[in-house]
Specification:
Number of helices: 15
Strand order of the largest sheet: 3-2-1-4-5-10-9-6-7-8
GO molecular function, one term: magnesium ion binding
Oligomer: single chain
Number of strands: 10
Radius of gyration: 21 Å
Order of helices and strands: HEHHHHEHEHEHEEHHHEHEHEHEH
Shape: globular
Structural class: alpha/beta
GO cellular component, one term: cytosol
Protein name: Cytosolic 5'-nucleotidase 1B
InterPro entries: 5-nucleotidase
GO biological process, one term: nucleotide metabolic process
């Protein structure tokens, strides 16, 4: 009995415990963002919820294939592993929550699929709401970022003040870094407010350039993803404190349609005023983002405009749409 208990205790101690929610950077991911549930979704829409649940139960030992957020989540887990190597008792790290409106009967297949992928996918917290929207639980789980394949739920979460994005699968099968989390952000209406984008849409580029130069030293207001960039920056500094700057497993990118000469200074000065660093800033002056993103190969790229999302998809980038700002009005019109 003594040997058996020792083995059991050792197994428990090796399994990482989730950080305390008040210290964690909580990323809530829907089941359709984490896994490929296209066929299951078709059954649900065409045959109804009962047939859907029955299908899931009959296939609960069939592992689900990765969805658009899968590589991103694995990269978050890798950062956690590196953090715990340097800081064994670190609580300020990523905590992944599976946030889904699936019924509890479907949970076994989700659990089995997560277990199949081993220690690279450690998800202990589940929220299965049985057909109801899970958005109301995001605040209770202290969510820092919510990723879903359902644009309506993402819109609901954005309106509730929670950083959220709709996930889109890339149209090409490409490889991503296993050792470095790469996150790419658009600027206006993503990291920053849509103040400047409003001028572009309503008054044109010439007025925009004039406005940005006049306000170069006035920081932009924050956008919905500013907080997540801040979270990434806090973790980066933990690696820098251990002399790991050159081996940091987090790298951030600003990929913006702005021109550097005419409107780039305000962006960089805004980040400086916030005390935030960005590892690479790419000012494209209106050029397509897809080719640059294909070179970066981020685990996720956040943008507020669907034509940038679609251009990124075509060239193999996993993109996440932020339904925020004036661009949404023009996309719907």
């Amino acid at each position: 009995w003594g040997d058996s208990k020792a083995l059991y205790d050792s197994l428990l101690s090796k399994r990482p415990r989730p950080p305390k929610p008040q210290h964690a950077i909580t990323v809530a991911v829907s089941s359709r963002a984490l896994f490929d549930l296209v066929e299951e979704r078709r059954i649900y829409e065409e045959q109804g919820v009962e047939k859907y649940v029955q299908y899931q139960q009959q296939n609960e030992n069939v592992t689900l294939k990765p969805g658009p957020a899968f590589c991103f989540v694995k990269a978050l887990e890798h950062v956690n592993t590196r953090l715990c190597e340097l800081y064994p008792n670190e609580e300020e790290r990523f905590d992944i929550v599976l946030m889904t409106n699936n019924h509890a009967q479907v949970g076994v297949r989700l659990i089995n699929s997560i277990k199949h992928y081993g220690k690279g996918l450690t998800i202990e917290r589940f929220c299965m709401t049985g057909g109801k929207s899970p958005v109301g639980y995001l605040t209770a789980y202290l969510t820092n970022l919510y990723l879903s394949a359902d644009s309506e739920k993402v819109q609901e979460a954005i309106e509730a003040g929670i950083a959220s994005a709709t996930m889109f699968t890339s149209n090409k099968d490409i490889s991503y870094s296993d050792t470095e989390l790469r996150v790419a952000f658009d600027g206006d209406a993503v990291l920053f407010s849509d103040e400047s984008e409003q001028i572009v849409k309503e008054q044109g580029l010439d007025r925009f350039f004039e406005h940005e130069q006049l306000n170069e030293n006035k920081p932009l207001a924050q956008g919905p993803l500013k907080g997540f960039l801040e979270d990434l920056g806090k973790l980066q500094k933990k690696f820098y404190a251990k002399n790991e700057r050159l081996n940091c497993p987090i790298r951030t990118f600003l990929v913006t349609a702005r021109s550097a000469a005419s409107s780039g200074a305000r962006v960089l000065k805004t980040l400086r005023s916030w005390g935030l660093e960005i590892d690479e800033a790419l000012f494209l002056a209106g050029a397509p983002k897809g080719p640059i993103l294909g070179k970066i190969r981020p685990h996720i790229f956040f943008d507020d405009q669907m034509f940038h999302i679609e251009g990124a998809q075509k060239l193999g980038t996993i993109a996440a749409h932020i339904p925020h700002g004036i661009a949404q009005k023009y996309q719907k019109s």
